[in-house]
Amino acid sequence: MFSLPAGAWCDRVRTRPLMMATSLISAAAMASIPLAASYDRLTLMQLWVAAFVVGSCHVVGMAASLSYIPHLLPPHRLLEADAKLASANTLADIGGPALAGALIGLIGAARAVAADAVSYLVTAWCTLRIRSPETAPSPRTARPSLRSEIRAGRGVLLGRRSVVGHFVS
User: Contact, 111 vs 30, CB < 8 A?
Assistant: First the structure.
């Protein structure tokens, strides 16, 4: 629901500042959890909002990182870079929950969430350290509207039964 608009939007803005912003917003959302818990003010609503904010930032940040790769590498290295990024994301999706469980068992839930907040700060710092210049997005007049780009993306997605499978039928 959110990925297509995020992807189309990321193609229209500078992606490195967007990636840094999503990391910083995620860090703040995650840091709010142990902070509220330390004052005995943590609520289920705050957990839901933090999960929504971090999830939304993840979607936008991933779309931005995919849009940023062509600014960093020559065209002949893009396939390899996309494969490595997909591998890293898969590894994080598989190993992340197990690592989180071990970390919670080792240092406790509040400290584990604080460590996650710090990891987002490290991500923002690493993104800031990228020295490759980013070209400005093309002017608005040279591209279709955001709505038409989202519609085209939805058409591609719905046209691929291997992607959406039986959910469409």
Answer: no
